[in-house]
Amino acid sequence: MNQRARHHPVVIRFGRLGDTILLQPLLHKLRHRYGGACRLVSLGACSRVLYEGNEDVAEVRHFDSQYGSLWFNPQRLRTALSLRELRQSPFYICEPDVRTRTKVRPMLALAGIPSEQCVFIEDTPMHEGEHWVDWLMRFADETPCAFRDALRLDRAMPCAPRLQPTTAELDEAHRWLAHRDMLGHPLVLLQPANKRTMRWNGVRKREDDDKSWPVDRWAALCVAILAEMPDARVLLCGSAAEAGYLATIGHAAAHAHVVVPREGLPLGHLRALLHIAHSMVSVDTGPAHLAAAVGCPLVVLFGNRWPSMWMPRSAAGSAVHAIGGLPDVPRVDHIALGDVTRAWRQLPPRPGHAAHQRMDRMGWTDAFGRYHSSGLA
Do 88 and 142 have their domain in common? Predict the structure, then answer.
C-alpha cells in the first residue's frame, strides 16, 4: 500500500454456511484495500474450518449461538470484550437485518468501538435483482470515516468465492475413499437436505419445506447417474443428524454403488471430496455454494428464492446449472426428474480433472498400501 498505514479490517457476519462462503470475495477485496488480512467475527465453527490458514483472514473469532441477551451468552460476551483490542481497526458489519441492531450494535458498544470506525451494510441498499456477492463487493468499497485514506482499488477483484481444501483435508479424504474401495472411481455427490429438513421429531413434512425434493426422485436420480457412469460411486452428503433421512434415499435406490456415510460428512471432509468429485447435485443450501467455491461442476435446485440473487458462483469457472426458483418455480418438488438428469448430463467437466484423478489413483493406491503394511491402519 505504498506509504499508507496497514490495517486489519474486522468483518462481522452472523450467517450460516452459505452466507459465510459468500463473504470470501469481500474478504479478499478488503485485504487488498487495507494491506492486512481480515479478522472475521462469525457464528459457528464453519467459519474456522473455511478460513483458518486462508491468506485473506488473519484470525477467526466465532461463537456457537446468537440467541438470548448478550449478558447471558458467555461466548458472545467474551467475543464482544475481545473486540476492545481491535479498536484501531476498520469494522465492516455485514448483517443486513434486525440482528444488526439487536446483536451486533450491543457488542460494538460494549467493546467501545467508535462509530467513525464502522460501516454497516444496512446503509448500502441492495439493488433490485442484484446478486448477494455483488452487493457485498459494493459494500467493500465503503470506507469508515476514520480511514478516509484507505486505498481504492482500480483493478477488478474476483466476484466469486474460491475456497480450496487444505492438504490435511485432502489427505484425510483420500484415506477415507481408499478405506471404502472408492478411490479412483468417479464420484458424484448429492446434497438432498437443507437447514430446514430435520426437526426435533424427524424429517419436516414436504409441504412445509419448499426445498424438499421427493425421496423417490433422489433415488431415481442415483440410478440414472449410475446407468450413465456404471463405475461411479454416488455419495449422499449431509450431517450425522440427517443420516437416517439419507438412508431412506439409499434404500429406495437399492444400488451397491450408492454410499450413505452413517457418521455424516464434516465440513472440511466435504470440501476435499468436492475437490475430487466429478460433480454435485444439490438443493439450494450451503454445500452448493461450497461446491462452486471449490470448482466442482454443479446442478442446484431452487425453491422459493431468486437464482439471480443466490446462484452459487465459481471463481474457477466450473459449471453451475440452476433449475427452478422464482418467479416460475416456487417449490423444488415442482422440478421434474428428467430436467435434473438432463442438466447433470450436460455439465462440462473441469479442465484437466480426469488426468488429475488418474494421478491421484496411482499415487494414493501406493500410499494406502504402505499405510496398511505399516500396521497403522
Answer: yes
